[in-house]
Write a structure and sequence with these properties.
This protein has one domain. It has four helices and no strands. Helix 2 packs antiparallel against helix 3 and helix 3 runs antiparallel to helix 4. The protein has 74 residues and is mainly α. The radius of gyration is 16 Å and the shape is globular.
């Protein structure tokens, strides 16, 4: 069963690296939709992430993401 799933994924042209890059793009788009961004408006980041795949997602995660501080529990 597992071999069939891997074979079908590769049939669609998605290797392991392709799946990781798609997950990175999805992560960036979800983060854009959920939170605040900096440097560009949300719509511009979303367009950049989709059109400049995968560099747009990396650029967003480095330059556009607002870091959230984790709540400390003492």
């Amino acid at each position: 069963m597992k071999a069939e799933i891997v074979g079908s994924v590769q049939t669609f042209g998605l290797s392991g690296m392709g799946l990781i890059l798609c997950a990175l793009m999805l992560l960036a788009l979800v983060d854009i939709a959920r939170g605040d961004v900096k440097v560009l408006p949300k719509w511009a980041w979303a367009v950049a992430v989709v059109l400049l795949f995968p560099l747009g997602a990396l650029a967003y995660l480095v330059f556009g993401r607002v870091r959230r501080r984790a709540a400390r529990v003492w």
